[in-house]
């Protein structure tokens, strides 16, 4: 008991530092030690709910009411945390195994407006229209939105996230006038996008992102596994008005059967990146003709290396 008292009497900042390094289950259990730990829980600067770290087949990993198959209880858990929290939240991460109602996400963003949030990452499996309040989170440095489809409608008065360094988008939809806004992301260094390489609409949005991030250094691209009639995007359309002057590293994680569209995208990248150092393909593709054409593409950067997956 004496050791427990000494641990509970640690400075609040140290207890917060311990809690943010624990999974949600362990952090909640730790808060049962004493009122001091409960106080630390109510002021932790980072909240990470990652259901992928819990095995649903193991009954004691999470209390039953918070397991992935019960999204309503999970939402209640997050609601209760935010309602009892006092102070700033630098990092807010939700990685769910199912669906989250958009009303809950909108509600959480309303709370985070008062929390000086710097990192916002969500992963779930349904459609979400990003609320207008999201664009008021002006302290953001990292944003990742991974959902089945994400609709983005920028307010006319939005001038961009001036501190944003890292952005991840998955299956996004932007309205035409959003792409015409004169927004610059000067601090953006890292961009992750999941897209359909052959979709003209998505390609147009990506080109706009490239143009508005002049200091982009690292790009990660995944193809969305969406099966519908492809429209063609030419290399000229990709290259239109775009030079990625500071891009050094590109990673293409996976793509499916539309090799021609991917090849046109890579052709644009190699022609528009004067300081490119590495272009990685992470997934083995059993399509020799594609790689033969790939290796014949011209490269603007003399340092550019194309790195293929090992057999």
Automatic annotation (TrEMBL):
Superkingdom field: Eukaryota
The F-box domain, residue ranges: 10-50
UniProt cross-references to Pfam families, sorted A to Z: F-box
Name of protein: F-box/RNI/FBD-like domain protein
Organism: Rhynchospora pubera
